[in-house]
Amino acid sequence: MQKQGKIICIDWGIFSHRAIFSSIKNKDIPIEYTCLSMIIASLRRVGVNPEDEIILAIDSRGSWRKKIDQNYKANRKEFREKFDINWGEAYGRMNSLLEKLDMGTNWRQVKIEHLEADDIMAVACRYYADKSVILVTSDGDMEQLTAYPNVKVFSPLSKRYKVIKNPYKTLAKRIECEKSDNLVNPILNSQDYEKRKQIVSLLELPDFVESQCIEQFKNFQSKYGDLEEIPFRSMREKIGGLYNDKSKVVTFHSCITAKKKKKRKSNDKRRKKNDI
Fold first, then answer.
1. In this structure, are residues 50 and 243 in contact, taking their beta carbons and an 8 Å threshold?
2. Residue 32 · residue 87 · CB < 8 Å
3. Which of 4, 75, 91, 218 could form a disulfide with 182 if both were Cys (CB 3.0 to 4.6 A apart)?
4. Dist. CA 151–CA 123, nearest whole Å
5. Domain boundaries, the chain
6. b/e sequence 154-180, b meaning 16+ C-beta within 10 Å
7. 7-254 belongs to which CATH class?
């Protein structure tokens, strides 16, 4: 019987932006190298098998959410301008890296006009409901998707799986206020609530979002890559060895155990403090 592979969705924007920002302090290290290095490090911890599907979820410009609320991410441009970064050049280099990854690997790339990586990853959770889906991202919005039993979120920052006790509580907090997306206006009535929920919720997306993503997933064809297209010899070697290297794999169970231990230690400290 053929093994059923898992779906690994990589939030491309998280890695590309971290690589770009890292260039402020590490100007001698190419941002392409940094980006690839971080992605490979996360994949090694998730563990990749030949039957797995790796999907790069890529943001498109002009999110559909801005038509609902003009404040949505309206502060991003001002934030970027604070840094001494040639954004046009940086984005151009990241796009070039995507082209090389498309030619050099069997990884899928999904980018749809007016949709965000969040949309693509959310629909993937539902489309591949019969498979294990791992979302590789540090975006807190993704935590709500652990409401689906087949979904886990792996953070490239902590290098561990997130153990989410109540994903619906995560969603509720983001409806109330989502500072990272500049959604800070108070919810005053049911109309405000429904408007914010439509923007923030990944558990319910408009039909045009769902259908466009599903069409992409359905049209996936067999794909092969030539590793020689990948920049940097060390990166080619690491990508080529992903299927065989299990030395860095982190399990979800180990993350649950670690969280319980941390909670016990915290409780012990609290009790000792109260006893003094």
1. yes
2. no
3. 75
4. 12
5. 7-254
6. bbbeeebbbebeebeebbeebbeebee
7. alpha beta
State pLDDT tens for residues 166-181. 999 889 888 887 777 7
Q: How far apart are CA 50 and CA 2, in angstroms?
A: 11
Long-range contacts of 263-269 (CB under 8 A, 24+ apart): none
3-state secondary structure at position 106: coil
**CB proximity list for 250: less than 8 A, separation 6 or greater:** 45, 46, 154, 159, 160, 161
Q: How far is CA 225 from CA 92, 99, 228, 239, in A?
A: 22, 11, 9, 11
- Give the rounded distance of the alpha carbon of 226 from its chain centre: 25
Q: Residue 18's Cα: distance from chain center in Å?
A: 12
Question: Coil, strand, or helix at residue 77?
Answer: helix
Positions of E strands within 16-106: 53-57
Report the alpha-carbon distance of residue 7 to residue 144 in Å, rounded: 18
pLDDT of the residue at 1: 44
Distance linking the first and last C-alpha atoms of the chain: 61
> With the C-alpha atoms ordered 135, 106, 239, 6, is the resulting torsion angle positive or negative?
positive
Give the model confidence (pLDDT) of 62-84 as tens digits: 899 999 888 888 888 888 888 98
Check whether 225 has a pLDDT greater than 90: yes
* Angle, CA of 69, 71 and 72, to the nearest 5°: 75
